[in-house]
Every structure is written in C-alpha cells, then in structure tokens.
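Q: Convert this sequence to structure tokens.
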Amino acid sequence: MPLDPSRPLLFDGAFGTYYYSLTGDEAPCELANLTSPDTVLCIHREYLAAGARAVKTNTFAANPVSLPDPEQLSRVIAAGWSLAEQAAKETGARVFADIGGNNAETAPGDYLAVAERFLELGAREFLFETLASFDEVLPALGLIRERVPGAAVYVSFAVSQDGYSRRGHYCRVLLEAAENCPLVDAAGFNCACGPSHMANLLRNLGPRRKPLIAMPNSGYPSSINGRVLFEDNAGYFAQKLAALYEAGAEILGGCCGTTPRHIALAAEALAAASRPAGTGLPGPSVPGPGAAAPGGGRPGARRKTIAVELDPPFDYDCSFILSASAELRRGGVDFITVTDSPLSRTRADSLMTAAKIRREAGIEVLPHISCRDKNHIALRAGLLGAAFEGISHVLVVTGDPPTQTETRGRDGVFHLSSFDLISYIHSMNSEVFSKAPFVIGGALNVNAVNFPRELERAKKKLSLGASALFTQPIFSDAAVENFLTARRELDCRLFAGILPVAGYKNALFLINEVSGIEIPPRVVEALRDKTPEEAAKISIAYSAGIARRVYDAADGFYIMTPLRKIAIVQGLIEEIRREET
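A:
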C-alpha cells in the first residue's frame, strides 16, 4: 500500500516494555501470544484506539535464537499474526509482520525462516527493525520480493545518539545501503536513542530518496530497585515526534518506553504539524576507504618498515617499555606496536600506553585495539582520546577470550567482531576523524588450517576499511607459503610477523599454551639445553632465515618481543637490515 504524502503513517508504540508494565511478566512477551492472547489483543486495540494506523505483530524476538523450539516458534508467529490481524480489521489499520534484530551468526538464515513463516500466513507488509547491519537481511528481502512482488518492505536500524550501530556502522552508511537496494520500500531508525537525539541525526542526514522511518524510544531508562523503567513523558515525546516529521520522517512510531498515551498525544501533535518541502532528494554520500598503511614503499623495496611489539606492564611501572621504545627507535625501528592485554591478562591500557610512548620515547606507535570487554561507547571514547594524542594508526584484533576461571562461567564481552570494529573506525574516519583519519590494520593468520577461508576473511577486512594486514608469527614452511599466497591474493600492505623465541622453555610454552603457534620440532629441539646466549643465536638465525624467505613479498616486518628480550629483537633487526644493503 503506497504512503499518503499528505500525512504521516503513524505506527503503534512499544509492545515489550508496555506489556511488562501491565503484567510484571518477565518472560518474553512473544510467548503471551500463546499464554495470554487476550492481553496481546487488548494492547493492539489500545494503540489503534490511540490513533495508530499501522500495528506490528508481537513477534519482535520470535526467532530461532530466542525460541529454539521450531514448533513453538511457528505457533508464536502464527498467533502473533492472527491477533494483530484481528485487532486491525476492526479499524482498517495496516498489519506489519515484525522481525526484530538478531546478532547471532545464524542471523541471515533466521531472518529467512521467520519471513518464510509470515509469508505462509499471508503477510504482505514487513518491518525488519532494530537492525545493526543491512547485508544479513538481504536473503529474507529477496524471498519476500520473489513470493510477493508488491509487498511493502520496511527496514529500520538501531543507532545510538552518536549515529553508530552495535556493529559499528554509521547511520548514513546504513541508510544509503537500504535506499540503494531495490528490495526496500522505506528505511530509517528505531530504538537505541531518544526522540531528541534521533531528530538531530535526521537533520544531519539531509533529504532522502525513500520514505524515512523514525521510531525512537520515549527517552533513556533509569534503573530503580533492579528494574529498568522509563519516565512518563508522553507530552514531550509527542512534540519531538512532530519535530521528527518536520525533519523529514514520513513513517513514525514509538519504541521502548512508549505507551498508547504516547501515541495518542503524538497523533494530535502530528495532525497539527506541517511538512517542509524538499524531502525525497538524494542525501550526501560517504567517501570510500583511502589512507595509507604504516611506512612507505611496496613489496620488493629494499628498505622495509619494521614494527616491534611490546607488552604494556601489569602494574604502574612503565620504565621498561619507555626505555625499550627509545632504544629501539635509536636502532632504526619505525613503529612500536602495543598489545591489548594478550592472553586475556590485564595490562595497562594499550591506547594510553601508546600515547605515553609516543610523547616520551619519540617514536610512532601502533596500538592494538581488541573487541574484548569493550562496547562501542568505550571504543569510541578510546579512539577520541587517541586522536587527541596524535595517534594515527591502530591494529584491530578480536582479542583472546578470558579463561573459564577468570569469568567463573561467564563469557567475555564481545559487542563487536574485528570486522565490525574495522567498519566502525572506518565510518568514524568519514565523520569524526575526516581531517586526520586513522590508518587501520587487521590481523592475518598464516597458520590457519583452512587458509583459503582466512584469505576470504582478510579480503572482507580490506573491503570494510583496513589497509594493512599483520600476520601471526611465521615459523613453518606452510606459513611461509601461505604468506606468499597472501601477497599474490591481497592488495594491501602486508607485514610478516616474526617471533624469535627466547629459549627452549619459551618455545614449549608457545606451542602448548598459545593458540595458533606452530614451531617446527627441529627448532624446538635445537634450543634444548642451550645457554641463553646460545639460544638467542639459534633463534635469531632461524628467524632471519624466515625473514629472508618472505623479504621481497613483505612491505615490512612485525617483530614480537619475547619475554622482554630486546637484545634478541635488535639482533634480528640487524640481520634484516643487512638485506637492504
């Protein structure tokens, strides 16, 4: 059904938070389609009586992740569709099959399965809401268009007040992806931020090519006695929804914290609001990736960029890392890379440590940024601080998971994957850091069992904004071959990871306790019963041999310091520099 350009399409408000406020039931509200259908029907009717001209089925979290029993899931969706239809027939309102965001790896298939069930029930209008990315819904959108070419398909993303989704995608990028897709009829935003912040985002986006959706939360919740509660601000919300309409939104409604009273007052405010001219024109576009990676030159150049990895301290004594950085600078090292609590053992913050090294040791830095135990708010804050300090390069890694003992059965926090974080920083480069964008590095595991798959992952990182890749330590012949294959396959700056082991015990630890490290048995055996000096010579010689084998293919070398043994690193650097003469 086409939109009436003379008036906005007003949806209902929140279901889950309103249902909880009425019942106190902490079970998923979608189950109420089966256990308390009268309550569900009553809520739909309240919203319609308040002035909503479109209702969403009570199926936001009806997916295989939240409801893993296929038979139960099918019944929940069917009941949700039936109840919404029953309520809508009484007023002639439109019914949208509501499919909520899903962050699981199985999300594309989950969206497809839920859309399939709605199509079986006769759904012709669909709302995919609270999404953090766009590509994952494409299979479901394609299925809907194939089955029902005239279906109405709306797509809505959840972005915070700074404009970024949980996956790190900027609002304009998400909106343009949806607008450029012929499978989508309308696109916009819901949830995650309040109406005032959403209005600011919409004003900055400019006019759009397709009808714009705006369904904000009522505001920001408070935690009272362990309960998450929203303020009763229906009058304020209504005025802000009218402002969203004036900012260009044509499809409006409420998300978390909104009630039938919010929608009733919004309907009144919208009736009195005037729509400005000029909507529907293309908005600004976002530039693509561009910055160069650490160091100059290309493969085959004789002088190679050398980055040396140092670990921040476990305590507040930073004397070693500062003195080592200064010494390495004097020895011709180009970058110090600073790890982010490797092996999930807490060390000083990588960004703050890198800033101190840059200030006091006078050498450029490449801090690692892991996805572990940081949400996008913390990551953004850290990046802003790094930019203040003049840091211009970052290496994005997933981060090692915490040990079971440390978490006592709880998982670490991984709000973003390395793909998401690369995309997030790249998006910020186009917006916040446009005058001095970060150069983004990513990791490449040359020891991966399925290296073709690892190459595909690397290509995805590059497509999302990375411009350099740093490999895991190269020890074996297979790893060397994988590195050379990567050089042929990847159009980016490629840094060969070299880890000169400190000795026999260090080698045993690495191969037995550090994931992804493979040292040839002959090398390990050669280190047995050797003095530290003898072990250092063996390690330097072997590592230099690896470096020579990949020298012409590498843009530079990424040398990991073993157990603070700076002398071993310096010895290896001398061997590498000899190749340049």
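Residues 9-272 form a domain with the TIM Barrel fold (CATH 3.20.20.330).
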